[in-house]
Write a structure and sequence with these properties.
With about 500 residues, the protein is α/β, with parallel strands linked by helices. It folds into 2 domains: about 10-265 and about 470-490, 3-Layer(aba) Sandwich (Aldehyde Dehydrogenase, Chain A, domain 1); about 270-450, Aldehyde Dehydrogenase, Chain A, domain 2 (3-Layer(aba) Sandwich). Helices cover about 35% and strands about 20% of the residues. It has helices at about 55-70, 80-95, 100-110, 115-135, 170-175, 180-185, 200-210, 225-235, 245-255, 280-295, 315-325, 345-360, 395, 410-420, 435-445; strands at about 20, 20-25, 25-30, 35-40, 45-50, 140, 150-155, 160-165, 185-190, 215-220, 235-245, 260-265, 270-275, 305-310, 365, 370, 380, 385, 405-410, 425, 425-430, 450, 465-470, 470, 485-495. The longest helix has 24 residues, at about 115-135. The protein starts with 17 loop residues before the first strand and ends in a 10-residue tail after the last strand. The structure holds nicotinamide-adenine-dinucleotide. Nicotinamide-adenine-dinucleotide binds near residues 169, 191 and 248.
Amino acid sequence: MNLPLTIAMPAEASAAPQTYRLLIDGKFVDARDGRTLERNSPGHGFTVSRYAQAGAAEVEAAVQAAQKAFETGPWPRMKAGERAAILLKAADLIEARLEEIARLDVLESGKPIVQARGEIGGAVDIWRYAAALARTLHGETYANLGDAMLGVVLREPIGVVSIITPWNFPFLIVSQKLPFALAAGCTAVVKPSEMTSASTFVLGDILMQAGLPDGVVNILAGLGADVGAPMVAHPLVEMVSFTGSTRVGKMTMASAANALKKVSMELGGKNGQIVFPDADLEAAADAAVFGGFFNAGECCNAGSRLIVHEAIADDFLGAVKALTARVTVGDPLDDSTKVGAMISSEHLAKVTGYVAAAANDGSSVYSGGKQIASSAGQYLDPTILRGVTEDMAIAREEVFGPVLSVLTFGSIEEALRIANNTPYGLSAGVWSASIDTCMSVARNVRSGTVWVNTFMEGYPELPFGGYKQSGLGRELGKRAVEDYTEEKTIQFHRGQRTGWWVG
Ligand code: NAD
């Protein structure tokens, strides 16, 4: 790595920051008290966006608008085919504005542009998949209850849904929730992270253009305590769909429990990739680097623990280190960049604090470990730590940075024990040529996704979510729309009721 990095200033740096207003009841409006929030590009250091900052009054207005749209508006009542047509139109409009949306996510989050384009393309695919599910959502009938009874189970939209998203995949994560809620006929209040709200406001613009009725989707920028918390507690909200840290997820669940609201939780991860000696070690080494450093490690699915068989550890780690040296860290807007900027200086300090504590605990820095000096923004060298043991904080807690912790094992039982020895259970990977080994790991690892001889692929068709403290419920997959419904049982009785109680 040649230090320091020189970061070129993009055209946006010499223009006034782009401003975004709250979307409430079909109109873009300022906050009543005129407050705003600013976001600096973490990769470049200039102010890129300014959003109207919501508070309690805007939460109330947005929830009321969503409730009105649900109670009396056309959205829950229209044919699924008509809803699907609007979702498909939205998908086309997202695709048409892909470059603009990707650039906003890059400027606000620091992620590399090539990766961001892939995320927005993936989001387009999800919107189309949700549109298809809108048309196949159905209940059940029971004609086997005797001649006089027909049982019908309806799937009805649950009502107003509060959707709260994090900063690491701003557009992709809202797209894992909102189109499915809409496909079911729900209305929503959406709060993106206060650091990366811009692309969600563009989505609001797209939805209005696609013909979504007023009040069906309302979007608020603001802080978690001011906006997220009342969005969860509001009595008219029936369901909370949250993606973020396990810490805030627990608070959110506790608040939702007061009114027994349905919750969907996508939370943190501490995922292990287990590498056996008989694996395709070249492919596994590349996946180890990808798993550790993709999105600068700021990824719930990061393969932040590399669990390697002791017989191959030295050679394999040599290959991982050599590949890591070829990972380009730099300007997020440069097409050749693989690792961009860290989200904030506070977060960077937290990550480097973990590295320092791990060294104190007895592990050693095998590669990287240092903040990279740059002409603007904050960057961290991809870091590999060797000699990590299960009891260390670095092996158990979510670091959320480009830090790969290496642990070694001697037997499959030991590998599984290490993999499962964390409070999280989001995902895992196994690398081996043996079907027996792969199946043993896949069946016994306690996580919502297991990748076998691959890592971090995703498809709208496949459910995603966590075991243990990584979450509750699943997103995506063919049941994703059902998650935003209630079941209603209707019993139709034919002829005179028999078996009277009093007689
Ligand atoms: P965070 O928990 O700090 O914030 C997430 C969202 O919650 C933000 O919009 C924030 O403003 C809001 N919030 C904060 N306090 C709140 C409160 N009291 N009530 C309601 N809302 C509140 O998380 P983050 O730092 O933005 O994101 C990183 C975390 O997200 C990591 O832990 C990561 O693993 C997790 N994540 C999980 C998945 C998944 O699918 N499992 C995906 C992406 C990120």
